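Notes from the 1:1 (GR / supervisor)

We went over the backlog. Supervisor wanted to see one worked example end to end before approving the batch request, so GR pasted a single chain during the call. The sequence is below; no edits were made to it. Supervisor asked that the structure be written out right there so they could see what the output format looks like.
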Amino acid sequence: MRHMMIIAGVSLLLASCTKTITSGDISLKIQSDLAATTYLDVSYGSDPKQVMDIYLPANRTSSTRVLIIIHGGGWTSGDKSDFTSYVTEFQKRLPGYAVANLDYRLATTNKNHFPAQENDVKSAITYLKNKSADYSISNDYVLLGVSAGAHLAMLQGYKHSDVLQPKGIISFFGPVDLQALYEYADASIPWVLKTITGQTLEENPDLFAQSSPINYVNQASAPTLILQGDNDKLVPVEQAFMLH
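Structure output shown during the call:
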């Protein structure tokens, strides 16, 4: 069921991003002779977790759009391999898209506190943007994230739109307001957020505010598809309502 939800969510948003370029009554179809290519564990930083897998479609050009995938795991666990099995399905349904599946540094009690993960996603996007000519891809990006990955996708798309303005964002139950999440009734949440920030809300409210995507939404923000379960015990449905 989770597999189908993710595939359906991607298909919904990306279908709305698709355009046909026409000149009079003649559709323009520009192709190259480039073969499909996969690059695994491409480094965008010096840490072993600062890597990504890049899947480039055949016949790509400077107009080829890019789907960025960011895994979840509460910012403390998870791996890009969690999404490897989805890539084949994305390639079937979206044959003209390049796909980048990201890893990022995971927070522990002693290191990689926020904004390490935010900075990693920003660095990965910057790397891809700078390599667009080498990879023969465009700067038309859609960001997809699950849970903590959705939080990072939205934080990148809303807060760092100066680096790159995505064409769309797909959020699967992503937290948007860390202060409200810290104050949520589930007793485990404050402990998780303290682990990833290294501080409590009372000690550093500014960090919680700066790490909350909702504080950066404006009229220019990318269209966002919000997918959220109303019985979610970790990320309450109120977070989705707040973002909407």
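Supervisor's comment: The longest helix spans residues 2-17.
Batch request approved.
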